[in-house]
Amino acid sequence: MIRQPRIRLADFSLSSRRPGLLPPAAAGEPWLMTVIAVLCFLACLAAVAASAADRAAHGWARQLGAEATVQVRSSVGETGDTAAARAAETLSGVDGVEEAAALSRKAAEDLLRPWLGDAVLPDLPVPHLVTVRLNAQAPASAVTLSRALAEAGLDATVDDHSLWRSEVERSAALITALAGAAFLAIAFAAAAAIAYATRAGLAAGQGVIETLSLNGATDGAIAWLFQRRFGLMAAGAGAIGAGLAAILLALLRFLGGSDGLSAALPITWSDLALLSPCPLLAATVAVLAARFAAMRVLASGRPTERGGA
Amino acid sequence: MPPSPAEPAPVTETVRLSGVGFGYAGAPDVLRDINLILPRGSFHFLTGPSGAGKSSLLRLLTLADRPRTGTLRLFGSDVTHIDRRDIPAFRRRMGVVFQDFRLLDHLSAFDNVALPLRLAGGSEADYAADVQEMLKWVGLGRRMDARPPALSGGEKQRLAIARAVITRPGLIVADEPTGSVDAVMADKLLRLFQSLNKLGATVLIASHDEALAQRSGARVLRLDAGRLSEPSRVAA
Question: pLDDT tens-digit profile of A168-191?
Fold first, then answer.
């Protein structure tokens, strides 16, 4: 009586102590592992760069959003300095404003000096400015500030930095998208390398595969052999790539001091946590790529051997 | 509805080919109008000169290729246009001995013989005793840990046979199983196949060794230029 045939993937499980059904690693696999490790290293750097750039941009945007600048124009019977002082007093009483202070001419000149130099400053009609620090949780809007100034009879223009803030946010989104695209491109390159290796493995091991098939192995079981091999290899390569990236980033963070690497890339220690899924992601990409490539080759029909009687 | 090899075959034929023609892509037919029935438990030799189509016929039976024309039935099921996904279930009911052994060089003799059981989902604890017994039966009890490159031609041949029959298949197909052994070993292997046949397996052996076929007392089929001669009973 023939036993009811059954296939258990457990037979191909990662914990199996029995020898693998595929021949030991081909000579090219160490090189493939190196390539995957380098790709993982680059992917980790891209991910951390995206995270740091995003953090920097949001920090800047938050900072800009918490401040406003008001330019006050003098009117008949009132000097610019007086108007600025009155504007500061008016704005201090508006809900959503923490503090408002008129900028003295000296302070305004100090801001302009780096660009214009000392020579022209005394004759320059420096605008009368009021700096406003807004409540971070419920900031007053530019409209509210303008209305309050108008009600106080002041001729003033409010700049809430929204133009700059949106530019910064747009740049941050662009940098994040580019880093994300780089990450995806690297993942795709890794998948392509794995798929190529799988196809090469299938071609090189044609005899073994035909033997397995003629002894009752399903296409899925054969594909799983490649998935397992390349998944484990990619996990190892991912761990190496992430480890090297972690060492480099830790070094940069250490050397960069409190700002991280720089104000534009404020790397934090928590960024290193981003690297932890790398081995798992690399293994997942490898498993999927190997599965796809193997099933495609197997389903297309194996090259048959000819000859014999 | 796909054929189901798990169901008990209501017929007594293991193999039936009706008007089968076969040729490789872009080439003329190497098999023409083959009509053949292998009753369950029968023992046949398939002889013929090199290039007659013996290996091609065996490839059809092992579902490595499909007929260009005609019908092929295995274990009572029509497998002429079988779906790839259904092939493994049929192959697990067959034992195939290849001309070139097809042993996995990186596995021990034990693991080579255990291969079909392992692929069928068995655990080593379940099949270890069977594999050891089988290896002893083919005279390789002391070479269980040896890998194929360390074995002689005859040992490899016996190992390949052990692997083919470890699952007690209903159909045993062997391509030149005595091609690389001397006459004494050939007779020994023949007796092995006869023993398996007595246990109920249908056996088909392709061989150019007509003398061995005659000595076997089995029914001899002759392929010549892709055509099968009428089976004739030789002296038992």
Answer: 778 878 887 888 888 888 888 888
Q: Which residues of B touch A211 (CB under 8 A)?
A: 102-104, 115
Tens-digit pLDDT profile for residues B204-230: 999 888 888 888 888 999 998 889 885
Indicate the pTM of the whole model. Answer: 0.68
> Quick count: other Cβ atoms within 10 Å of Cβ A36?
27
d(CA B171, CA A66): 83
Cβ–Cβ < 8 Å for A91, A100: yes
The DSSP code for B81 is T
Helices (H) then strands (E): counts for chain A: 8, 4
| Cα gap B184→B181, rounded to integer Å | 8
Q: What is the pLDDT of residue A308?
A: 37
Measure the CA–CA gap between B132 and B144, rounded to whole angstroms.
8
Amino acid (1-letter code) at residue B87: I
Residue A185 makes CB contacts below 8 A (sequence gap 6+) with: none
Q: Which residue has the tokens 């050397």?
A: A255
CA end-to-end span of chain B: 42
Q: For residue B174, report the phi and psi dihedrals to the nearest 5 degrees.
A: -130, 130
Where are chain A's structural domains?
21-61+166-299, 67-138
Complex ipTM over 0.90 = no
Cβ pair B43, B35 in contact under 8 A: no
**A213 to B88: CB separation less than 8 angstroms, yes or no:** yes
Of B51, B111, B121, the CB nearest to A11: B121
